[in-house]
TrEMBL record:
Residues 1-83, 184-237, 429-472 are annotated as: Disordered. It holds the Pfam family UCH. Residues 85-425 form the USP domain. This is Ubiquitin carboxyl-terminal hydrolase. Residues 68-77 have a biased composition (Basic residues). Residues 20-31, 188-199 have a biased composition (Low complexity).
Length: 505
């Protein structure tokens, strides 16, 4: 807040009108370290809202402020070598900027969206949201300016998020990707109706509800219909597949089985997930495991007198881009501040159905992390994202700083990590040959496999070996002490996942 007050004083000395500076943007109140240049190019205020909650450009004295802002931005971007620039905060819009910088850090998604945009342009079709997103992406490398302000304002208004208050980044991400899909599949040249693009999967109660029950009921628990067929809610193929589906969508087989030994009826369905919301556990792997672990639900079975059913989930098709969201906010608005350890790579192979005859693998590499500091009422979002050369940057509205992977996965970031974007590097839809991977994927040990054999046929998962040192390096990058790491690995026979659980418990 001292930095904000200092910038206000500078604006006063330059003769700027400061009537709008009375209200402070909640975007920065929860941030322990506000960006150096958080005075917006639009109006010279720290995200101050106008009458309708949208920041308004200043009409007086812009020349000196613009020169000062430009110099600061150039200084910030001097070590980026033409990479991405920052985005203006147009008033409590850090959540939106964080989401866009996250999406910009996923090259496969950006390239596919560009391709769809070119198709629409050649065909004369229109998608306002897609056009605005591509316009913003085309200005990535420029410093924050009024052109960016106009596009950001248009995007927020089109999304109906111009409420004048802080919003949730996860809600904006899911709404934005759904709206992109809906606009594209609703174009006149589409012969089929637009599919249901909701990326929020149905809760367990909905999953167990009878498919033929259309009446409202006051029952506290749903009934388990005796049916072995797949639900009619399964996704249907659509001739116009948009990148939000092609990149983010996973397919999960969900089953409900009556827990009564005399019954055993099963209901199954295949559901699309565009992102996975996991509980806040000590590490990201544990949160994912909790999502896929069988769960006992209180459900009335209509075939027998059973009161319980077991819900199980298995991965059917892995997404090209894995979006993971931590459920940090409770219903009452309080925030779970517990640290969640995460690493550069993650493996979903163990969540496929073990009875599947096809040998499936799904190994991912971290591309971006959205962090949230502060509380639900007063918080701030930033994004750490990597480019195609593997360089990492911190995007904090207008501010852009060069970072390292160690900075991103450091222990101090565990309490603020909120949304993760991982890109497939080994799997049926990846650009890397099975068994390949790339630099930085070695030795993470996230699958917990022991006794990894090197090309010479010897075990390298012992102290001093390449796999062992890779695990030590990964845990060290998370902020743990070397002695603690070695002791934890020793206690668990070099099992990475178990060692990580010990270190974070």
């Amino acid at each position: 807040m001292k930095e904000v007050q200092k910038q206000k004083q500078i604006a006063l000395e330059e003769g700027a009108r400061v009537a709008s500076l009375g209200s402070q943007s909640s975007s920065f109140q929860g941030s322990p370290d506000p960006p150096v240049n958080n005075v917006d190019a639009a109006d010279g205020t720290d995200g101050a809202d106008g009458v309708d909650g949208v920041a308004r450009p200043s009409s007086t004295g812009p020349e000196n402020r613009e020169i000062r802002r430009t110099r600061r931005n150039r200084k910030k971007l001097s070590n980026i070598s033409g990479d991405s620039g920052g985005l203006n905060n147009i008033g409590d819009s850090c959540y939106m900027n964080a989401v866009f910088q996250c999406l910009f850090s996923i090259p496969s998604f950006v390239e596919e969206v560009k391709g769809k945009g070119k198709e629409l342009e050649e065909g004369g079709a229109g998608s306002p949201l897609l056009r605005a997103f591509l316009q913003l992406e085309s200005m990535r490398e420029s410093i924050p300016n009024e052109d960016k302000v106009q596009v950001l304002t248009s995007l927020r208004s089109t999304m109906n998020f111009d409420t004048g208050r802080q919003e949730d980044a996860h809600e904006f991400l899911t709404t934005f990707t759904d709206r992109l899909t809906y606009e594209y599949t609703s174009l006149p040249n589409s012969n089929d109706p637009a599919p249901n693009a909701s990326s929020i999967p149905p809760p367990a109660d909905d999953l167990a509800s009878p498919t033929n029950d259309t009446s409202a009921t006051s029952a506290t628990t749903p009934a388990l219909q005796p049916s072995a067929s797949t639900s009619t809610n399964s996704p249907k193929p659509h001739p116009f597949v948009f990148p939000t589906d092609n990149c983010f969508e996973a397919s999960v087989d969900e089953k409900l089985c009556c827990n009564s030994k005399q019954c055993g009826w099963i209901r199954s369905r295949k559901d699309p997930y565009k992102n996975f919301s996991t509980s806040v556990k000590s590490n990201l792997d544990s949160g994912l495991a909790n999502f896929f672990n069988p769960e006992v639900l209180e459900i009335d079975c209509q075939r027998c007198s059973g009161k319980e059913a077991i819900q199980s989930r298995k991965l059917s098709n892995a997404p090209r881009v894995l979006l993971l969201h931590l459920k940090r906010f409770k219903q009452d608005g309080t925030k779970i501040q517990d640290g969640v350890a995460f690493q550069e790579t993650i493996d979903l192979s163990k969540y496929f159905d073990e009875n599947d005859e096809n040998d499936k693998s799904a190994r991912y590499k971290l591309k971006a992390v959205i962090n949230h500091t502060g509380t639900f009422q007063k918080g701030h979002y930033i994004t750490h994202g990597s480019n195609q050369n593997g360089k990492w940057f911190e995007y904090d509205d207008c501010s852009v700083l060069s970072k390292t992977l160690k900075d991103v996965t450091n222990k101090k970031r565990h309490k603020t990590a909120y949304i993760f974007a991982y890109e497939l590097v080994e799997g049926p839809d990846s650009d890397v040959e099975n068994g390949g991977g790339n630099e930085g994927d070695k030795g993470d040990g996230d699958s917990g496999d022991e006794g990894i054999v090197d090309k010479k046929g010897g075990s390298e998962d012992t102290e001093g070996g390449e796999a062992y040192e890779g695990k030590v390096s990964s845990l060290s990058e998370m902020g743990f002490e070397l002695e603690q790491i070695k002791l934890a690995l020793k206690n668990h026979n070099n099992n990475f996942e178990l060692a990580l659980n010990e270190l974070t418990s």
